[in-house]
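User: Predict the structure for this protein chain, please.
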Amino acid sequence: MTETTPKKNGVHVLTIEEAQARIAELVEKSGMSRDELFRLGAAWELDAQHRGILANIEGLEYLLKLAEQ
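Assistant: Here is the predicted structure, written as structure tokens:
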């Protein structure tokens, strides 16, 4: 599984466990629950920092779904 990093124009290779841990870190960094983050994101009530966190979580979850197929 890979995750692109536009800031460094590089690619990170992650195991499923590392991706899950990264998602947990991002949720913790947001200061709210995963459900609250997604609910506020769906209602367009997140600031730019939290939208970025949500986008990273969504990207990692997408890759996890592909890896589990």
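The first helix runs from residue 16 to 30.
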